């Protein structure tokens, strides 16, 4: 049958089986044939199996042959190769999963679905839906997941999702939705994940998500949202993840996300944000990740006193200046990305209150010099990227945990003894693309852990014979370093 049985993923009690490759083309196989030898050799218990999944979606089968005993629950997956029934009454009341992919379902009213008392998952994927009847899903008390992706619903009525108190996941991706009524989701008391990505929303008004007190994840990425009015997220006190990337937001202030007291992850990348007020995030004591990459920020004033913030992405903006207080009181900050901005100077003390920092990217700025004390307090820093700046000299000290150091594409002409004092843990060092004409004797002293050294695209003609003597390379390498790259053949003096 062409299926790679070896890639089967089994969970305990075997509620789910996944076949992730191959093409299955048959109308006659039985469940025992699907499981084949594996069910014998491994004593695979399928008595509790409720879901059988094949990926990619090039699977052709007849569900009447497949989804029968010994499966304890029934799945009805209707595709182009398996047309839907003429009426909903043709679907047994025992159905647990019903889906329509690339085919239209029978027309219905809420009374047609009430009979499906066991239904847990209902999906309409690219099913051609342009509207939904009022209270379309009312009475489906067992429903847990409702997927309505790839349709053309446009505007949602206030009663569309009434009568769904137990649904935990609602996916409305790619529906051309232009607006939301404040009471659109009223009554969905158990909803934890709401996805409205890839629609045509332009603004969020007050109380847009009224009644969603249990919501933990809200995905609004890839819309056209320009404005978030005060109170838009009112009542979402349990929300932990908010995704608003790829929209048209231009500013953020203290009212934008008011009420999101449990927020942990905020994704705002790929907007047009040029202004973030200093108190925008002051209420978020639980915030762990902020992504503001690919915006139009020019300064950094809003990221202070966030006690559990671990990840801050500010790359690909227009930031030109950092203040000593830019990252004040960020004791847990571990990852900071300032790549591809216009930063020319690192003021003394700028990283003094980020003791947990282990990943620092400053690539592609205009930094010409780094004072010796700026980085010296970063005792946990493991990766430092200074590639593509304007450094003509460098003095790094006091970075005992550093393992990766990239200084490629700068303006270094020489490396003097003492430049890398205290960097005994560095395993990767790139000096490529500079203007080096020589490496001074003892310049690489102290690199006892170095394994990869890049020297390509420099102007090196000769190297002192003992230049690598202090490096503790493996004896099996045959030449100092597992990888040493040079722009031309390097001739060592004798």
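Q: What amino acid sequence fits the structure above?
A:
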């Amino acid at each position: 049958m062409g299926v790679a049985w070896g890639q089967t993923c089994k969970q305990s009690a075997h509620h789910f089986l996944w076949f992730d490759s191959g093409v299955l083309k048959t109308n006659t196989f039985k469940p025992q044939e699907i499981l084949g030898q594996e069910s014998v050799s491994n004593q695979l218990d399928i008595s509790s199996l409720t879901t059988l999944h094949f990926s990619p979606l090039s699977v052709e089968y007849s569900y009447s042959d497949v989804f029968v005993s010994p499966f304890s629950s029934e799945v009805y997956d209707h595709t182009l190769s398996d047309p839907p029934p003429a009426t909903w009454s043709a679907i047994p009341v025992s159905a647990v999963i019903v889906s329509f992919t690339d085919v239209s379902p029978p027309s219905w009213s809420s009374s047609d679905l009430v009979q499906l008392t066991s239904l847990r998952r209902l999906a309409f994927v690219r099913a051609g839906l342009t509207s939904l009847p009022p209270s379309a899903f009312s009475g489906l008390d067992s429903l847990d997941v409702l997927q309505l992706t790839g349709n053309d619903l446009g505007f949602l009525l206030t009663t569309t999702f009434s009568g769904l108190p137990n649904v935990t996941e609602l996916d409305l991706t790619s529906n051309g939705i232009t607006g939301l009524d404040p009471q659109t989701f009223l009554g969905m008391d158990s909803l934890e994940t709401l996805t409205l990505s890839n629609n045509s929303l332009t603004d969020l008004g007050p109380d847009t998500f009224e009644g969603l007190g249990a919501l933990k994840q809200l995905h609004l990425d890839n819309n056209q949202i320009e404005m978030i009015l005060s109170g838009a997220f009112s009542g979402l006190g349990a929300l932990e993840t908010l995704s608003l990337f790829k929209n048209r937001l231009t500013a953020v202030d203290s009212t934008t996300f008011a009420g999101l007291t449990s927020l942990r992850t905020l994704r705002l990348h790929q907007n047009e944000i040029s202004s973030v007020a200093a108190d925008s995030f002051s209420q978020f004591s639980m915030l762990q990740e902020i992504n503001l990459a690919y915006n139009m920020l020019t300064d950094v004033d809003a990221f202070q006193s966030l006690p559990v913030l671990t990840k801050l992405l500010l790359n690909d903006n227009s930031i030109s200046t950092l203040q000593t207080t830019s990252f004040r009181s960020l004791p847990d900050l571990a990852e900071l990305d300032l790549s591809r901005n216009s930063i020319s100077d690192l003021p003394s003390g700028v990283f003094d209150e980020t003791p947990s920092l282990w990943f620092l990217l400053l690539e592609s700025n205009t930094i010409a010099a780094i004072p010796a004390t700026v980085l010296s307090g970063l005792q946990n820093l493991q990766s430092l990227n200074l590639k593509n700046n304007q450094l003509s000299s460098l003095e790094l000290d006091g970075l005992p945990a550093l393992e990766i150091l990239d200084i490629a594409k700068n303006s270094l002409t020489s490396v003097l003894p003492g430049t890398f004092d205290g960097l005994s843990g560095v395993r990767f060092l790139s000096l490529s693309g500079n203007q080096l004409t020589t490496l001074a004797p003892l310049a690489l002293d102290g690199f006892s852990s170095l394994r990869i050294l890049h020297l390509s695209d420099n102007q090196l003609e000769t190297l002192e014979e003992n230049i690598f003597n202090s490096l503790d390379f493996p004896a099996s390498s045959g030449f100092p370093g597992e990888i040493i790259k040079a722009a031309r053949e390097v001739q060592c003096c004798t």
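Q: And what stands out in the fold?
A: DSSP finds three helices and 31 strands in the chain.
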